[in-house]
Amino acid sequence: MMAAVIERRWLASTLFLVLLLALWQLAGALDALPDYILTPSAVVAGLGEAHREGRLFPAARKSMFRLLAGFAIGSSVGVVIGLLAGVSRVAEDLADTVVSLTYPLPKIALFPIVAVWLGFTDRARILVIAISCFYPSFINALAGTRGIEPRLLWVARNAGASRFRAFRQVVLRAAMPSVVTGVRISLALAFILTYATESLGAGRGGLGELIEIGQDNLRYPLMWAGIAAFALLGFAADQLWLRLSGRLLRGQRVEAIGRA
Amino acid sequence: MTSSRAEQRSADLPQAAAPSSGNDKLLSVRDVTKAFSRGARRVVALDGVTVEARRGEFLTVVGPSGCGKSTLLHIIGGFETATSGDVEVDGKPVTGAGRDRGMVFQKATLFPWMSIERNVAWPLDVAGVGKSDARDRARELLELVGLHGFADAYPGELSGGMQQRAALARTLAMEPALLLMDEPFGALDAQTRELMQEELNRIWQESGTTVVFITHDINEAVFLGDRVVVMSGRPGQVIDDVRIELPRPRSAETKGSKEFGDYHLHLWSLLRGEAAKAETVRR
Which of A57, A174, A243, B222 is deepest in the core (most CB within 10 A)? Predict the structure, then answer.
């Protein structure tokens, strides 16, 4: 029965998406769209065009390399420091003020400074993406450890578990739903920052540059190809993360990803 | 201090046995006071509480909400410390939490990321019991609490009553000399609750452990207890200690008996005033 319900919901959301795309396509066929808004079929054609020109895959590879490197570094450092701050008063005091002060800063504003140091290189872009990914992962990992149900720790005390065991087997596991939520937000931010860093400075490459080239030369199919590639990769990455966390966190799925 | 009051009030009912002697006495709470500061105010939660329990006895503690009965249990469990007075279990002073005093909380505190079986086996794992032995023991305990066939389920997949059964099994895995239960059925619906009371009765008789059971439900206190300790509203004091001489095993019919009704009436007469006071204090 459960499977049937899930299937029906999946079907409903897919049908709705198809309907939106059909309306969009129809609006284009009726000439109701300005020339810079392409129809879905023209976007697909744009992807084909970018591919034939040999631009699509190299650009996507370059973007994904930067994105995944920045995401992996930033979110893992964020999670580790967040968990430490959650269990150590000293670590929390050290990290908290710095994080609070720098959190509201748009991280892309650091890119010009980083570029003075590292040049407009992959390393500079990865660093800016990583800095941005750090925050949601840190904040959620900290909240996850701080917000742990205190009775769970009493259970561990009652059983005579050492502090280390309680941290490893109770605190860490209890914080996981919060941790994966933070990492998921970091993943979305990585896409935003990848585009942002690829639209600034020299040596851009990547899908960001593809979009810029399309715009500068009024080649809208190229522009849309870049946007569509970002959207599809972003969707795939998010789904992959949801599935992975759902599989690893059996028993905590609803907390972690909002569905059983 | 409270004994004269207690004698007066329950003159028409059988009295609690005189304090037992020797190693028959498992739990001894002597003159325990607990105060904490809330802002500038000093709140006294427990005031000179003295309670004893014999080995194998089922002791229920009933009192209005906010009377500090949970605090008392937490102190016995070693999770909180008393401001003054002392607590001994099996002749040893309580200095912290320990496996000899197993706690069952109001909300089932199972680890949601572990299967029911692994939850129950966890205390054994902590104690260094081998994996397969721990598993076998966990299966036995699940059988005891009526959760046969749910070993591989996760806590989120079980009802509240079943979660409490599993939590009880996990606590029993520590083989505590003293089982401390903090309104364990308080969050359950009325029917599940009745069922769980009967089940607990059976499990207690099978395991032979000593129980201190906190509740605000008079029916529950009488149905389960060998003795009911009655506490006043804040500051919590013991105002009566009633021996319940209903035959065992007790069943649903027990609750319909005249004796049951008499106990209920007596306890309610004690608690009515306290409950009313607690109610006005809150307003």
Answer: B222
